[in-house]
């Protein structure tokens, strides 16, 4: 009988093993980073939150460095600007690792063995100055 799952998480729930196993994702994200950051620099800062989306999040570790860099670029332009990161993936995605990575509960090491810093502390406060961002789950 064929599986109905399009993607199956790697490892146990919450371990975040996908990030450490996927060099190709890092290569693609690293190649795209200059273009993404250039768009962040020139996009208008309108009232309300600056929204960044990660479609196909997996365990969120592969895009963590880019998310932090994008937040930094926004904050260079407007230090107090609220930033909202939207993570999207399949219903059966390994969501526990997304929050473990984002909150710094587990360390993030890329597929090349490089350690990445988490953007938040365990209480959900963003560690990127000058002001905090709270991470809040949203169901829509």
CATH superfamily: Vaccinia Virus protein VP39
CATH class assignment = Alpha Beta
What's the SSE pattern? HEHEHEE
- Beta-strand percentage range: 5-15%
Determine the oligomeric state from the structure.
single chain
Q: Order of strands across the biggest sheet?
A: 1-2
Number of helices: 3
- Write down the overall mean pLDDT: 77
Distance between the amino and carboxyl termini: 33 Å
Number of strands: 4
Quick rundown:
The chain is an alpha+beta fold and 140 residues long. It has helices at 23-42, 64-77, 95-102; strands at residues 50-55, 83-88, 108-109, 115-116. It has three helices and four strands; from the N terminus they run αβαβαββ.
Question: What would you say this structure looks like, in words?
Answer:
- By secondary structure, the chain is α+β, with helices and mostly antiparallel strands.
- The chain has a single domain (19-116), classed as 3-Layer(aba) Sandwich (Rossmann fold).
- Helices cover 30% and strands 11% of the residues.
- It contains three helices and four strands; from the N terminus they run H-E-H-E-H-E-E.
- It has helices at residues 23-42, 64-77, 95-102, and strands at 50-55, 83-88, 108-109, 115-116.
- The protein has a two-stranded parallel sheet.
- Helix 2 (64-77) links the parallel strand 1 (50-55) and strand 2.
- Helix 1 runs parallel beside helix 2.
- The longest helix is centred in the N-terminal third of the chain and has 20 residues, at 23-42.
- Residues 128-133 have low confidence and may be disordered.
